[in-house]
Amino acid sequence: MTDHKIPLAGVIGHPIAHSRSPLVHRHWLKTYGLPGDYVALDVRESDLEDVIRTLPKMGFVGVNITIPHKVAILDIADIVTDRATLIGAANTLIFRKDGKIHADNTDGYGFIANLRQGAPGWKPSTGPAAVLGAGGAARAVIASLIDAGTTEILLSNRTRPKAEALKSEFGSKVSVIDWVQAGNMLEEATTVVNTTSLGMTGAAEFRVPLDGLRRGAVVTDLVYAPLRTKLLEAADAAGCVTVDGLGMLLHQAVPGFERWFGVRPEVDAATRAAVLE
Ligand code: ATR
C-alpha cells in the first residue's frame, strides 16, 4: 500500500519562511507531471531527531536540511556519505525503505554543476582558485574544487584561524592568505569564489579590492540576493566570465529531487524564473 502514497519531501530549518526550495521542487513536480509535494518545515533543534524519525511514517521520502541543522543532522542520520563527512555537514536526507536515514551533501555538486553550466569552458586545473570565506559554504566549495581537479587553493578569511583550520583538514593544496591581502590573491587566480555573506542584501558591503581580477578568470558569488553582486559587476567589467549564485541553489536540489521523485530535473531558464517570481 505504501507504494501508492503520494511521495512527500520538504526542507527543515529554523527559521524557514525565507526558503526558496519549495518553489524549485514544486516547479519541477509540475513540469514533469509527477505526483508529490514539497513543504517547508520549521523545526527547532531540540525537536529535530523526533521529527526526522516521524516523517517517514507520514509518507515523506526525504528532506533537505538547512541552517541551523546541517551539522547536527550528521549525528542523527544512520548512514553519512564520505563527502558529507568531509564537508562536515549534510543537506539532503533519503528515508530508505529499510528505515535507515541516509545523509548526503549536494552543495559541492551544486557549486560545480553551476560553474560548468554558467562557464562551459571552465577548467579547474588551469590555475589557482581564490576562495573568500571559511564558513560552512567554503568547506563544500573547497572539497568540490579539489575533487574537480583544482591543484591550488588560495584561501582568505576575516578570522584567519578558521582558514588555517580548513587548511589543516584539506591539506597542502590550500594556502592561507591574510584577509588584508585578499585582493592580491586575485592576480593569480583563474577561478574566484566569494563564499562570505558580504554583498548580500542586508549584510556588510563587499570591500575586498578587485583591481587584481584577471581577464578570462571565472568568477562566482554564492550570494544570489542581489543576483548581480558588486563582485560580479566588477568581474564583468574586468573581462571575467561571471556565474551568479542562484544556479548553485538550483543545482544542489537536483540529486535529492531525482532520488525522491524518480526524474532527474533540468536546471533551465524556467527553473530560474520559478524561483525569482
Ligand atoms: P556559510 O555557511 O554561508 O558559509 P558562515 O559559516 O556563517 O556561513 O560563514 C560566513 C562567512 O562570511 C565567514 O567566512 C565569515 O567570516 P568570519 O569567519 O570571519 O566570521 C564571512 N563574513 C561574514 N561577515 C563578514 C564581514 N563583515 N567581513 C568579512 N567576512 C565576513
What features would you describe in this structure?
This protein has two domains: 8-105 and 249-276, Leucine Dehydrogenase, chain A, domain 1 (Rossmann fold, 3-Layer(aba) Sandwich); 108-244, Rossmann fold (3-Layer(aba) Sandwich). The chain is built from eleven helices and twelve strands. It has helices spanning 21-31, 48-54, 73-76, 82-87, 107-118, 136-148, 160-170, 230-237, 246-252, 254-261, 269-276; strands at 8-13, 37-42, 60-65, 79-80, 92-95, 101-104, 129-132, 153-156, 174-177, 191-194, 218-221, 241-243. The strands form two sheets. A six-stranded mixed sheet has the order 2-1-3-5-6-4. A six-stranded parallel sheet has the order 9-8-7-10-11-12, with helices on both faces. Helix 8 (230-237) links the parallel strand 11 and strand 12 (241-243). Bound molecules: 2'-monophosphoadenosine-5'-diphosphate (ATR). 2'-monophosphoadenosine-5'-diphosphate (ATR) is lined by residues 133-138, 157-159, 162, 195-198, 204.
Helical fraction equals 25-40%
Q: Strand portion, in percent? A: 15-25%
How many runs of DSSP E, i.e. beta strands? Answer: 12
Return the CATH class of the largest domain. Answer: Alpha Beta
Give the name of the CATH superfamily of the largest domain: NAD(P)-binding Rossmann-like Domain
The residue ranges in which pLDDT falls below 50 over 5 or more consecutive positions are none
Bound compounds, each kind once, are:
2'-monophosphoadenosine-5'-diphosphate
Q: Give me the side-by-side strand order of the main sheet.
A: 2-1-3-5-6-4
Report the end-to-end length measured between terminal Cα atoms.
Answer: 37 Å
Radius of gyration, Cα only, in angstroms?
A: 19 Å
Outline: globular
In round numbers, the mean pLDDT is 96
How does the major sheet shape up? 6 strands, mixed
Number of domains: 2
The topology string of helices and strands comes to EHEHEHEHEEHEHEHEEEHEHHH
Provide the CATH topology of the largest domain.
Answer: Rossmann fold
Number of helices: 11
